[in-house]
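Box 3.1 A note on notation
Throughout this textbook, protein chains are presented in two layers. The first layer is the amino acid sequence; the second is a token string describing backbone geometry. Keep the layers aligned when reading.
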Amino acid sequence: QVQLVESGGGLVQPGGSLRLSCATSGSMFRSFVMAWHRQAPGKPRELVAHISSTGDSTDYADSVKGRFTIARDNAKNMVYLQMNNLKPEDTAVYYCSSASGRYWGQGTQVTVSS
């Protein structure tokens, strides 16, 4: 069984930065492509970024390219999302998941507001 627990969300001003962390459990984690999604109120869930099992390949939604960076540390069973130059439209609940969609965390709230 794989468990995912996100942390690092909060309130930040426009232009600020946050780093989200996703702690995972289970030996299978290291073989998974992992992803970050987000869901804003009244909107469908959106894929933000994903990263290959080895971490050498990443991809991003156009809305976050150049501002967000996904990374992973397989030795620590961690996945990260570094978010820079945050905008009010980045406000959402952010979820860590396996790219297959089988495993999800509970989400962490990110609010970008002055």
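The chain has a mean pLDDT of 96. DSSP finds no helices and ten strands in the chain.
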